[in-house]
Amino acid sequence: MITVPVEIQILFAGLLFLMGLIGLLVRRNVIFMLMSIEVMFNSAGMVFVIAGAHWAQAEGQVMFIFMLAVTATEVSVALAIILQMFHHFKTLDVDELNKLKETD
Amino acid sequence: MNTIFYIAAAVALVSTGLAISGRNAIHSLLYLIVSLLAVSVVFYILGAPFIAALEIIIYAGAVMVLFIFVIMMLNVGMERESESNWLKPRMWIVPSVLTVILLIDFLYVLKTMAHEEISGQVISPKQVGLSLFSTYVLGVEIAGMLLLAGIVGAYHIGRQKKKVIHRFMKKEEIIKESDAEK
């Protein structure tokens, strides 16, 4: 059905992961960091699907479904944390949160 | 088929790059959704139609809506632009072009697949479901518990405690409450 070499497919997933990693390291806005984490999750799941397609096994897709559940949980908790962060500090910049002291 | 894979991969890489380098959060989300659609096309070509559908329904549907809710609630990222400013062509033209490329991809696949026999490489949803609910049924239950913990955790963390603005008002409230108890 598709004759793209599996190395190219893995390379594509790797590039996507790299983009997510760069975004996570470069951006300081916490929403953008969360979006980069999503990209990284997605590319990691893609490697599962590529491997499953390569060996014609259903396990790769099963693992992707589990990753979907983990991602959904992670996103909901992280967004709740972001809401609290904005409520307390009135900013989305993570560099503003480096002081371990009480604010009043 | 190979050309379609390369086109979808290119669209995914370009839109992801634009998503992580954007300034406005909503625009970046738009690019991220295009990226997810492109990745879904890649999954479809790889012979995983079920995962392609899940990718759109859960990632591009549910998770991105959560993001949009939070960005709208926080009211950041707009930086006081007027609504006419949002509707300028340069805001939506690039995501639209990328999505149209994907649409052409999709139509081409539909047209060629109608004449072509699907090879045995495609892993059907039935196989995935059988594997999921027989071999990995323990994992399904653990995922259920994880989601429950996620719901409770998100509710607990996201709850905003009632703030008393002034200490005298606080005192009054306590007195009122004790009066009410009596």
Q: How would the blueprint of this fold be written?
A:
The complex is a heterodimer of chains A (104) and B (182).
Chain A (H helix, E strand, L loop, with lengths): L5 H21 L3 H25 L4 H31 L15
Chain B lengths: L1 H20 L3 H21 L3 H26 L8 H4 L2 H27 L9 H10 L2 H22 L8 H15 L1
Description:
The complex is a heterodimer of chains A (104) and B (182). By secondary structure, chain A is an all-alpha fold. Chain A is built from three helices and no strands. Chain A has a domain of 57 residues: Helix Hairpins (Orthogonal Bundle), CATH 1.10.287.3510. The termini of chain A are far apart. Chain B contains eight helices and no strands. Chain B is flat and about 75 Å long. Chain B folds into two domains: 119 residues, NADH-ubiquinone/plastoquinone oxidoreductase chain 6, subunit NuoJ (Four Helix Bundle (Hemerythrin (Met), subunit A), Up-down Bundle); 60 residues, no CATH class. With 182 residues, chain B is mainly α. At the A-B interface, α1, α2 and α3 of A face α1, α2, α3, α6 and α7 of B.
